[in-house]
Hints:
The structure holds two protein chains of two kinds. By secondary structure, chain A is mainly α. Chain A has helices at residues 4-36, 39-52, 68-83, 92-105, 112-126, 130-134, 138-159, 164-194, 200-209, 213-219, 226-235, 243-257, 263-283, 291-313. Chain A has one domain (4-319). Chain A is built from 14 helices and no strands. Chain A is globular. The model of chain A has no long low-confidence stretch (mean pLDDT 91). In chain B, the strands form seven sheets. In chain B, strands 13-5-4-20-21 form a five-stranded mixed β-sheet. In chain B, strands 7-6-11-12 form a four-stranded parallel β-sheet, covered by helices on one side. A four-stranded antiparallel β-sheet of chain B has the order 14-17-15-16, with helices on one face. In chain B, 49% of the residues are buried. Chain B has helices at 34-42, 45-62, 90-114, 119-122, 128-132, 179-192, 194-200, 208-218, 241-251, 307-312, 330-333, 336-344, 361-369, 395-407, and strands at residues 65-66, 77-78, 81-88, 154-162, 165-172, 229-232, 254-256, 261-264, 267-272, 275-279, 281-284, 317-319, 351-352, 356-357, 374-378, 388-389, 412-416, 422-427, 430-435, 441-444, 448-450, 456-459, 473-480. The radius of gyration of chain B is 23 Å and the shape is globular. Chain B has a domain at 354-416: 2-Layer Sandwich (Dna Ligase, domain 1), CATH 3.30.1490. The chains are: A mainly alpha, B alpha+beta.
Amino acid sequence: MILVRSAQGLYWMSRYLARAEHLCRMLALQMEAMVDRPFREVHFGWSRIYGTMERTPPWGDIGLLESDEGLLFDSYTLAEDMTFERMHPESVWSCFAMGRENARQMRQCITGEMWLGLNLPYLRLQRMGIRDIWRTSPETFYTETAGAISAFTGAAADTMYRDENWSFMRLGRAIEKAQLTTSLFLTQLQLSRQADDSFDGDWETLLRLYHAFDAYLVRYAVQVEPGQVLDLLATDSQLPNSLSRMLGHVEEALDALGPGPDATASEELHRLAGRVSALVKYEWDGRHNPEPLLNEAYRLCQDLHDLVEATYFDYPLQDAPLR
Amino acid sequence: MESETGMDFANYDLAPAIFDEMFTQTGEPRDGTRPLHEALLRLSQEELGGIQERVTHSFSQEGITFTVYGDEEAEERIIPVDCVPRIVPAAEWEFLERGLAQRVTTLNRFLSDVYGEGRIVRDGVIPVDVVRGCPQYRVEMRGMEPPLGVWVAICGTDMVRTNDGYFVLEDNLRVPSGVSYMIANRKAVKAGLRRVYRSSRVRDVEHYGRLLRETLRELAPRGQTDPSLVLLTPGIYNSAFYEHMFLAGELGAQLVEGRDLVVNDGFVYTRTTSGLRRVDVIYRRVDDDFLDPLVFRPDSLLGVPGLMHAYRLGNVTLANAPGTGVADDKSVYAYVPDMVRYYLGEEPLLQNVETTLCRRPEGLEYTLDNLDKLVVKRVGGSGGYGMLVGPHASAGEREAYAEEMRANPADFISQPTLALSRAPCLIDGRFEPRHVDLRPFMLTGRETRTVPGAFCRVALREGSLVVNSSQGGGGKDLWVLED
């Protein structure tokens, strides 16, 4: 039995940090791509990042980057926008700062190791700007920031008591990652459809983003085939961040939490979590076009979030049980 | 005072008019300070600099911050900490502890009296207008008697020392803060000076949370033995939020904001993820004005509608009780020695600073005539805001202040400018004396308890007498030694 505000703070902390981590990993790969990949792939990468985060670039549309000068010039601005822009709610800085702010408010609910693991990179990040990372190795910055969030998650797993605080953190992280993953897959499919030709590199990047390249080679062949990439990333139960695994985590976290004040709302939430998980687990196979299913999963993830809020955070006080 | 290898005190200034916490007037280390003094001399400038850096760094890492109101650039500011501890010998502490217990007992009696029969006023010990004219007097508390008659469960008394001994500067009886910095200073400094800490036989302060928990449990409504505790904070933007969070952790209590609490049928509940959970004791760090918008300020978003109703029914304890501000008002302060004699029939152990009330015409006249020599404070002020240190103010500042005093004389008191004691601080790689005070914390439940230590504040600016963190002050660890 924890405070609603604590539960909410931990849930959002996890969501923001998962978002920052995901964005950092995408940006790290994008920075690597800028070194030696074709213009079209770099362009694809930026479109994928903005599409996944459901944002538009500062000038409205990412034009095709057709020269070295244009590539570097635009990429600098896009990277700054997605990394350090404080007015941009989905930038790495904003997500990290919001995660850390929630942690600061909920510090009594997290361990000292977790706080240090978050506060130290925050203090570092606070002093940095795009110029500090751009000239040498920007991908290192993104990899280190993502690593810091991973380390924070590891510290949580290692040091946190497995109570409701833990479960709300886990729930927030799993819902965020499921939503980001469906959003990324949908963006990838839409961009690929719009592109005149399909590059292996676009799909390879996706595998690398999920640390799934080796698993892909073991399961399939050397040739990267988009349908198989999505199959692996969506349904593989052994891949740590596959969509089905994230949805499984949602179910586990809800089971651990138990019912909220309103038993009917809790049942509905559990049913919904089961439904979206079953959708990916059992209805994915054999689909020629996974887009409708992904759209449905994306919508259900949003509903899941709304129902978590209604069940645990915004329940009507007049009917709440007295403990 | 010189060392061949390490740091030295060669240029350390010992002004005869100012008490130095480490040295006698002849430059000899005082009783109890010798091990620390010798340890400091053995350290090189680099080693001591490293210790200072680690202490500062630990505060930054831990996020031990305070907020300066009106300073948008520095929302979270690290409180500066000096790594050289201040020493208080056992006998001195024993005296202070007795004096503080006497004082807080008196103030609790005073509060019961002025919200009850008002005998002290009737007997002419303190004028009625000083009590009832005090903005912190809460008529809503008339006739109330908190559990065990304890109005002030947590008291943080500001004390200074001069060549004439210790003085109480003010009693903080509403929501005194600083105890978390006392503990944080201790953790950081003892890690840096571990060997000398051990050999100096310093008394522990880190059990404060346990004592606070015992105290609050004793004050539970109707003598409940296993009450549910919460700490009520104004929220993350409050200057002492770090402390609230820290203390909630020490207490094992939930850290709640007003919006986390609801009053239902005369009882207070927290909103939890499983429903509403009953609360028995609230350690509130929200000012009276904001506690309950139905009783105090109607525009308060920090409080809990109906809280005072539950309190009046005796269903919840508020610590400290609402209305305690009347006993730490700067005008009422002047009467505390008389209160000790009146309620306890004893002579006060701790001295007050001579205080002139400007509400009296002769007091105003005296203060205006001597503005360049006095410290003038607003009776409702705190945190070092809005005070005038006459000797350090310009003629223009004094004149502007005098205008305000003439307009509202009852809002001001004046005191002589005290030569606060100084202690060595590490400033730019060398030892320099800086003015210090101390704020020990007293806890009152069934009995009065304290931990042997205090939040020691230090005016880090050269020559400054203002120790408040919001005004450029910092902190220092204070070591009370075993007998």
